[in-house]
Fold this protein.
Amino acid sequence: MEQIVNSFNLFVDSSRGHSSGSKGDDYTINLQDAGIHAGEGEIIRMTLDNFSMPKVFTNINKNNNKIELRSTEFTDVDFRLTEQNVNSVHQLANDFATQFAAALDAAYATCGTVTYTSGSALPAPDSKATDNIIEFTVTTANAHGLTANNTILQMKLDDGDSYQLLGGDRITDATDTTTSSVSLTVPNASSIKVTCRYPALTMTTPYVYLRVPGVPNSNLETKGLHDPKEDHKTDTIHSQILGRVLVGDAWLQYTASTGREFFLDFNQKQLNYLRLKLTDNCNRPLGRPSGSGSLTAGGLGTKQSTEGNLFFSACLRFDIIKKKNVNHLETEHYTPNISARYSNVLTKFDNGKDGFGKAPGF
C-alpha cells in the first residue's frame, strides 16, 4: 500500500536564469539544496502537473522537408520544402511542385526552363471531396528524355519524415539509390507528372515530448520513440519520457486532471540535478535534426533557445512515497546475571582477568 509522506511543487521557467550549458529547450536544474530524498522503503515520484510553451517552430521544418531527386541523366540533387505552417494539403502540394521544378531546372540544363503552373496541383483548393493525395505536372522547355526508369524521388528515413508529410514510401536503406518514394510518369516529351501514393498531412509532430535524461526510472517506451532508425522497433526500453503535450496553433498547453497521467518513479534515493529536454516523437530537437548543433527551431536567427523565444514553463510535483516498511534484525544487549551491587567485587578470575559483566567466552 502506497502512502505519501511528503509532497512539494517545483515551478520551472526555462526562459531565463540558464546554468552553464542549459538552454530554453534543454534545461538543467541544480537540486542539491532542495532536499529531494527518500528514506528506506520510500521512492521519489515526479508528476507533470502543468506545462506550457509558445509554438515557435513551424509544422514543416528541417525534420520533414527534405527530398532527394535522383537520375542517371544528371547529378543527384536534394531540395527542401519551404519551412512554414500550411493551412491545407493544396498549399503543401503547390510548394512541393514549385520546389521540384526549381530543383530540376537547376540540376538538368538539357530540359531548358522548367515551369509549374501555380495552383494547379491536386488536391484542389477548398475541395471537400478529396483523398488528399498530391499530384502535379511540370513542363520543360525542351524534350527532357527523362523516364520513370531513370529518374526517381526519394524520401529517406535518415532525412526525416517527408514521407509522412507528403504521402510517400519511406526509404529505410541509406544506400538505396533505385527505389522511388512516389510515382513519376512522363505524359509527353516535355512534361513530368508526380503522384504521391498516400494521403498527405499538414504536420508530422502532433506532440512535443518532455524528457528527463540521465536519471534511472520506471517508465518504458518502444524503441521507435527513442531512435526511429533502430532495429526491433516494437521492443521496449527504459524511457526518459515524463509526458507529452499536444501541439496547438499558438501555444502548447497541458494541465493534469487526475494527477496520475504523466509521472516517473525514480530508482535513486536523492535527486541532485534534473535535466528537462524537449523533443519530437523521434527524440530529435524541435525543428532541426539530431546532431546539427543548431539552437533554433524556427526562424532566421541562430540563438532561439538561448537568447530567443524557445522556452517552456512547467509545474512538477514531487511525492515521497512509502512503498513498504523495512524491518531490521535487532538483538538485545547482553545483560549480566549478577547484581550491580557486586559489580566492584572480584568474583571470578579467567587466566588472571576479571570476567564479571562479560558474555560467556569473552
Notes: The first strand starts at residue 3 and ends at 13. The chain is about 10% helix and 30% strand.
